[in-house]
Amino acid sequence: MKKTVFWIIFLANIIISSAQKLERMDAVYSGVPWFDQNGNIVSAHGACVVKEKETFYLFGEAHSDDSNAFAGFNCYSSKDLYNWRFENIALPVQKEGKLGPNRVGERIKVMKCPKTAEYVMYMHADSLTYKDQFVGYAVSKNIEGPYTFKGPLLFEGKPIKKWDMGTFQDDDGSGYILVHGGEIYKLSDDYKSVTEKVNENITTGFESPTMLKKDNLYYFIGSHLTSWERNDNYYYTSNSIKGPWESRGLIAPEGTLTWNSQSTFVLPVQGSKTKSYIFMGDRWSFPKQASSATYVWQPLTISGTSLKIPEYKESWQIDLQTGIVAVPKNADKIVKNTDSKIKYSGKWNHAVKENRISESKSDDKEASFSIQFKGQQIGFSSFVGRENGYAKVVVTDEKGKIVNSATVDMYSKNAMEATVYKSPVLKKDNYTLTVYGTGERPNWSDKRKSNYGSTGNYISVTQIAIR
What we know:
Blueprint: H1 2-12, E1 28-29, E2 45-52, E3 55-61, E4 73-78, E5 85-91, E6 103-112, E7 119-127, E8 134-140, E9 148-152, E10 154-155, E11 158-159, E12 165-169, E13 175-179, E14 183-187, E15 194-199, E16 207-214, E17 217-223, E18 234-238, E19 246-250, H2 257-260, E20 262-270, E21 275-283, E22 294-299, E23 301-303, E24 306-308, E25 315-318, E26 325-326, E27 333-336, E28 343-345, E29 349-352, E30 358-362, E31 368-375, E32 378-384, E33 390-397, E34 402-409, E35 416-422, E36 429-437, E37 443-445, E38 451-453, E39 459-461, E40 463-466
Antiparallel strand pairs: 1-25, 2-3, 3-4, 4-5, 6-7, 7-8, 8-9, 10-11, 12-13, 13-14, 14-15, 16-17, 17-18, 18-19, 20-21, 21-22, 23-24, 25-26, 27-40, 28-31, 29-30, 30-39, 31-36, 32-35, 32-40, 33-34, 33-36, 37-38
């Protein structure tokens, strides 16, 4: 049994270049792996989205599962915000220097300069020990790249030596750099240097700075410092980008840890009937940032000084013509964890929790569950919690060929039921879903040597959804 599981997991890690053509997704799904046109994981964290004509371009950090070293910045494109096409590595690892091997490159943001029509990319560059931090920039004539790295962005002849950074482009085309702590710097007309520091530090902490503007009011979002762990993000408002800024509290209900995510960007979508604002958040998964980290994109509710994500939408749609957000009707067939169609292998505990959620759970390295189904798409939910680890997910066709695979992180600081996997939309046929325990879990420590992450290797299933 051990050898069989080993080889299945080994084969599932191979990029499936000959995978069947995928059908189109119909909504934004949060907290589950996203797949590009080739069936590969979308790797674009610390991201931003730029709209050019009728196309959205997603820029984000490429990652590996072995190191936090800079692995390049990826570019994807989409016409609908649901389906993402890998375009290229917009800025690869440099042969040497500040974005060369064994360096850090994070928080990529791209803006089109109104004066020059150039695309300017900004990032936090650093050493692996986070002791050589600065805001850097790169330029390109084409939005997809390739971008040419130019080094530090200078203010009064010196680099801005800060960590997390973001960008904001105002209605008049002025560009701004937002940095750790709440400082704001105004860019020159060509976006290649800083002319003025327009806002001083707001508070201690305040990383992943993100800004939006609605009805002449500025909203400044940030998160607490908890390493890769999620926390309750909060925000400030001001009538001027120069402040003063007033604290307004949390953007999601307290204790939800911003629906298990950290802010990276807010995307405005202007329609004929309304302008919607999309919160883009990262659900980090250290050390498996490449294979297991996911995205939490949610529509923001904004009224006056109130900015909220009041409830978590696992899936939602946006009409790009009107700007209206809607929740799709669920047409999935639900198979509960106790259904005889699900075959369990290894040692499993089947129990009903205090909140009446029925769960099957195992930390046996030999454990797996599988189900045969006919349809186009399959997903499953887990009761994620502090003792959970990584699971390997494999979907095979009738001939046993792997058509999709992913590594799923079932850890959560706050226990809750959530969808953790949703396959791409496949050709309607007969398939088998199999989920294996890996005996691995997310664990990390910060600069202060504080330990974070899971305390166990459990995998879990509460129900399976088939379409």
